[in-house]
Amino acid sequence: MHITKTILPLSCGWLLFFFTTASAQSAGYRARDYGIPFDGAPGPFNAITDVPGVTVGHTTLISGNGPLVKGKGPVRTGVTAILPRGTTFDPVYANWYTLNGNGDMTGTHWITESGFLETPILITNTGSVGTVRDAAWQWMDQHHYYTPFYHDYWYAYPVVAETYDGIFNDINGQHVRKEDVFHALDSAHGGSVEEGGVGGGTGMMCYGFKGGIGTASRVLDKSAGGYTVGVLVQCNHGSREQLTIAGVPVGKALRDTLPYSIDKQPLGLASTPPREETGSIIVVLATDAPLLPGQLKRLAQRIPLGVTRTGGIGGNGSGDIFIVFSTANPHAFSNTENRTVTTLPNDHINALFTATVEATEEAIVNALFAGRTLTGINGNTVYGLPTAAVIRILRQYNRIPTK
């Protein structure tokens, strides 16, 4: 589920803030449900939450229409939270990788040094990283989500990543607040994960269509250990012409259709100038395979192979930053005591590489299939992926059987 924070004017001139709950994305909207041929076997939810213990929460902020009034709106943004073991504090082995660094992910220096992720992961818009980071610290303090190094003294470096939604959202108004971060963390749950324009992905665009949050998973064969790999993306990258689905150059076929508009000017590839690779993609990968930080780095370095399957190139204006963690080896973290852990031989890691690529590719396509047409500040509009046209194109390439 996700929360939509709606702002309504009252007759007395005040604003009323309330939260409404929306159900998870109904079956039939996800790419696989249309018969798109993805490699590999997904878990029961085909989501990052198929990795046991992982939970996800969203807070979605939508209000206002019309011209941009800085500090007031329109608002099209939010925050997404991923907790490796739910509300249980038990740091996990982790690592990260950046393909192109025109973006931000806080807290990564200590992950590199220590090998552990000690905080939740949050994703939001570029202008709200500081607010979300501070709120995460306060949430951890209130929930005792830490191990003190002396009495009740503790420290942490919350991991907060971002992509830019200023085309549709009053980004400089910094509308994400502490209570929004708390709600995303407190409402995080397992099971189905809502996708598309929700949470941190509310105001995002991907390959010239509505983007946002997407997720997918893969379960390895028992002969490869039976481990699960789950991926969640916040995609805001790519140009229309780059989009590739199931190996088919869908974007080239759709480049002259549904041009998005910014400040009343159409910016499809049929007009000039096209908007090329000025966005970003954040990828969070979880697995229950027993991997050490160095091995997790190797998984993180395979994420770009999944991105490129959908057409991304990690262009100069793109922030492509990826974080990976393992929920295996519970209680491996300690400030004072030795620990004994289990690790997977490197010779057995290829299946995890494959699962990483496959789940990343499908998560991005899922985000696109879940995207819905969005109008934001100044009437700026981006259309949802025309799924019927995509299916028709895939059939022309014999990737989906003709009915």
Give an overview in words.
The protein is α+β, with helices and mostly antiparallel strands. The protein has a single domain, classed as L-amino peptidase D-ALA esterase/amidase. Helices cover 20% and strands 26% of the residues. The protein is built from 8 helices and 18 strands. It has helices spanning 108-114, 129-142, 178-186, 250-254, 293-300, 303-309, 350-370, 387-396, and strands at 2-9, 15-22, 55-63, 75-87, 92-101, 116-117, 121-125, 159-163, 205-206, 209-210, 212-219, 228-236, 261-262, 265-266, 280-287, 319-326, 374-375, 381-382. Strands 2-1-3-4-7-8 form a 6-stranded mixed sheet, covered by helices on one side. A 6-stranded mixed sheet has the order 6-5-16-15-12-11. Strands 9-10 form a two-stranded antiparallel ribbon. Helix 6 packs across helix 7. It is globular, with a radius of gyration of 20 Å. Residues 1-27 and 269-273 have low confidence and may be disordered. Keywords: Aminopeptidase, Hydrolase, Protease, Signal. It holds the Pfam family Peptidase_S58.
What attributes characterize this protein structure?
disordered N terminus, alpha+beta, L-amino peptidase D-ALA esterase/amidase, 403 residues, globular, six-stranded mixed β-sheet
Structure, briefly:
This protein is α+β, with helices and mostly antiparallel strands and 403 residues long. The chain is 20% helix and 26% strand. The chain is built from eight helices and 18 strands.
